Amino acid sequence: MARKANSSLLFLEEWLKGVSGINVSGGLVKQNSAPSARSIIQAWSEIRESLQTQKFDTRYLQALRALVSSESTIHVADPQAKLLTSILALREVSLPSESYTLVLRLLYVWIRKSFRPSQALVGSAVQAIRGGFDDRRNLQREPALVAQSVLVSGAFACVPSLSGEMKLLSLELLCRLLEEEECSLVGSQEELVPVVLAGIGYALSSSIEAHYVTLLDFLFGVWMKHEGPRGSVTHGLMIFHLIEWAASGYMRSNDVNKMSLFANEVLETSKAKYAVFAVFMAAAGVLRASAAGVSNGAQNFEIVSKLRSVAEKSMESEAQLLVSSGNVTLASMQREVPLLKCFAIALARCGSVSPSAPLLLCLASALLTQVFPLGQIYESFCKASGNGFIGPELIWVREHLSDVIFKESGAITGAFCNQYASASQENKYIVENMIWDFCQNLYLQHRQIALLLRGIEDTLLDDIEKIAESSFLMVVVFALAVTKQWLKPIVSEERKMETSVKILVSFSCVEYFRHIRLPEYMETIREVISRVQENDATCVSFVESIPAYDSLTSPKDLFMQRIEYEWSRDDVQTSRILFYLRVIPTCIGRLSASAFRRVVASTMFLYIGHPNRKVARASHTLLVAFLSSAKESEDDERNQLKEQLVFYYMQRSLELYPEITPFEGLASGVAALTRHLPAGSPAIFYTVHSLVEKASTFNTDALQGKGSDPGNQILELLLRLVSLVDIQVLPYLMKSLAQLVIKLPKERQNMVLGELYGQVAESDDVIRKPSLVSWLQSLNYLCSNNRTNGSASGPVIDTSNQLAARL
How far is residue 644's CA from residue 681's CA, in Å, rounded to a whole number? Predict the structure, then answer.
């Protein structure tokens, strides 16, 4: 009585719902996954009794509902189908309107699960359905009843074991329903669309060709009718997979006539009454089916290959409608939202497609306006915030995250990159600029929306950033594809350099959205940076793209003027500058001193004071890179700039220490300037003076002990300089350090002297070692004498003889 079955394979409409992203749990009644045998037997008994007594009360209706709710597991035998047909054939008895729909559903379950249904019984069922509609011609018909009638008629027509005459009878019934425009009622109920499409799909798969063109006309033309359903992405996906299913059947059965007829009527002939999105999705479905057919060894390879070629030409022709003489603009594309979405998803799902300029341009536009509709989001935000009412107007942002087109963003990006790889240079250049402009706009617009929404509409901002993060992945994958096209030996140096700079600038714009380590990102970065390192002009071009200092601290944007702007709170901008701070050191040797002074220095010093220590540390690293760099053609100018920068560097770093300036960054900067500035440079003297002065500002208690105490760290840095500064600065350092050490408490003096003894003892510098030995002896004496005058303490650590012995 009951049998396990996979309903998604048995019932075409359920499969269409699943592959199109519709919740498959919806149906005539709520599904019961585990009915008992007793309940099924009882339900059939109630129905049989109702027919015998001609009393169709609520028990009869409940019995039908119980059986339909178990449709995925029950098996309807021929005797039960005969019982259902008898109910349909009743003319004098008034039945609840819902019962006709439920009876038709059970007949559908019967025909889909029956191995060899009775020819006579099918004929009786068709006549009963036809008679029922004739009797109710003047009555308003329920859309669900019409849809189920189409479904079961189509299912009858595709049963292999039925005779041609019986199939023809079923197809005539189906076409009669369609000709009477009963399906205009279906447009009012979205959930019935897959039911009607499945009925047509079954009919198209029938082994006879009768009424084939009529069925095609309805399938592709109903979307153009005023009363019909309004075309959507979901409908497009249903058509895509419906045609894939039907075409796969043609290929398996080697139905050459059906393949040729479909190609001629749908793909090769342009019909004004056919909806463009439906034809495009059908062509894509043929491509998907043909790819599987070829891989599985279709019997007629030539016919399948020809069908594939015709489908590709049809897709290109439909895409050309959106391209308008090759002039693609995002503004014009946004007026074709459903069509663009359908194009993108179809190309993502249909497999490989021959390269085509219209397809490439449509994919690029779909990605930037439909898959990642950030421009529309920011525009909506501007309108909503202008009215002081943000949330409700952007509720569609959350809905977009669950939209099928967003979920397919990775596949769409893959299809786009495949098309790009084989495109002409002109079209490559067009889509590259579209992507780079997208990155620039994303940076400019998200800066504003992040500052205005953070802390106010955090949930909305999180949703927007999820979309933006996915767009970052698209940009990275595309940029890698670009490098493989242009950064090759056969490409001109000018094109390589231009491409490298544009990729780096675009990456800087989307750096805020980089939260994971991507191999594609690292590969692209390594490749383009290696190109920038080869050419001075390219390096300067990249560096000059950094936002101007004034725009960082005092943006002129209208939105920024509505808030109390603080540059350090602008996380989107900070991420972009951090990208520059990390990349510029890799090509610093190519950057002239004048360019560094003009473009980089002010921004570097600004971000040395950023409260995020990661950012501040990167600024210190950039200075270290410049101090350690050399450029033969401008040694004097470069050295002069280095000295000038050090004065402000020490002032800026120490005034922010320890609250903001990270000690590691300061230490690396001081070490670099002592190594790379000319011997005896005034900047080094100033550095020593500044460090000693800063150390003096800390309470002597703060200079005790070891570890991460700020005052102690400065003292440790000064001790380290003893072995780093040149011999001309060393006397000044020793004098200044001695004045500082004398003021320390006894325990800390002992520790400092001990550290200095160790340094001098291990030193191999025969030039400075004698001076240090003499200085240490004097310092030891002064410390000892200072404490003797102030207390009764004994000697410090070593006597002069002991010191001499150690050294």
Answer: 11
pLDDT, mean over the chain: 87
- Number of Cβ within a 10 Å radius of residue 770: 11
Is there a cis peptide before residue 355, judged by omega within 30 degrees of 0?
Answer: no
Residue spans per domain, the chain: 1-230, 680-699+709-783
Q: Do the beta carbons of residue 319 and residue 353 sit within 8 Å?
A: no
Helix-helix angle 119-135:143-157, to 10 degrees: 150
| Closest among 362, 376, 530 to 442, alpha carbons compared | 376
pTM: 0.87
Model confidence pLDDT, tens digit, residues 707-733: 568 989 999 999 999 999 999 999 999
What are 690's two structure tokens? 């500044």
Is 252 exposed, middle or buried, given 0-12, 13-18 or 19+ CB atoms closer than 10 A? middle
More confident residue, 701 or 383: 383
Q: Sort 240 into a burial class: Cβ within 10 Å, 0-12 / 13-18 / 19+.
A: buried
418-437: b (≥16 Cβ within 10 Å) or e? bbbeebeeebbebbbebbbe
Tokens of 552: 């960082």
Closest C-alpha among 660, 527, 553, 540 to residue 588 = 540
- Do 203 and 154 contact (CB within 8 A), yes or no? yes
What is the torsional sign of CA 647, 651, 654, 656? negative
Q: At residue 480, what is the residue type?
A: L
Going from the C-alpha of 377 to that of each of 372, 404, 437, the distances in angstroms are: 9, 18, 17
430-486: pLDDT as tens digits: 999 999 999 999 999 999 889 888 888 888 899 999 999 999 999 999 999 999 999
Confirm if 104 and 145 have CB atoms less than 8 A apart: yes
Q: HEC string of 167-194?
A: HHHHHHHHHHHHHCCHHHCHHHCHHHHH
pLDDT tens for 649-679 read 999 999 999 999 999 999 999 999 999 999 9
Distance CA(236)–CA(194), nearest Å, equals 11
Confidence of residue 579 (pLDDT cuts 50, 70, 90): very high
Structure tokens of 439? Answer: 């990155």
Q: Evaluate whether 337 touches 370 at the Cβ level (below 8 Å).
A: yes
List residues bridging with 2 in a β-sheet: 74
Has residue 686 got a pLDDT over 90?
A: yes
C-alpha 462, offset from chain centre: 14
> In this structure, are residues 99 and 57 in contact, taking their beta carbons and an 8 Å threshold?
no
Provide the 10 A C-beta neighbour count for residue 115.
6
Angle ∠(54,58,63) on CA atoms, nearest 5: 85
- Give the rounded distance of the alpha carbon of 445 from its chain centre: 18
Retrieve residue 255's tokens: 């139905």
What is the DSSP track for 426-446? HHHHHHHHHHHHHHHHHHHHH
Lowest mean pLDDT among 211-215, 326-330, 406-410, 613-617: 326-330
Euclidean distance between CA atoms 170 and 759, whole angstroms: 101
357 near 423, Cβ under 8 Å? Answer: yes
For the chain, what percent of residues have pLDDT higher than 70? 87
- The residues, any chain, with a CB within 8 Å of residue 540's CB and separated by 6 or more, are 590, 591, 592, 595
**Mean pLDDT, residues 335-343:** 75
SS3 assignment, position 716: helix
Contact 167, 207 (CB under 8 A): yes
The partner residues of 74 in beta bridges, in order of sequence, read: 2
| C-alpha–C-alpha distance, residues 222 and 97, integer Å | 26
Helix, strand and coil content of the chain, in percent to the nearest 5, comes to: 75, 0, 25
Q: Which of 620, 624, 640 is nearest to 588 (CA)?
A: 624
Q: With beta carbons less than 8 A apart as the criterion, state whether 467 and 360 touch.
A: no
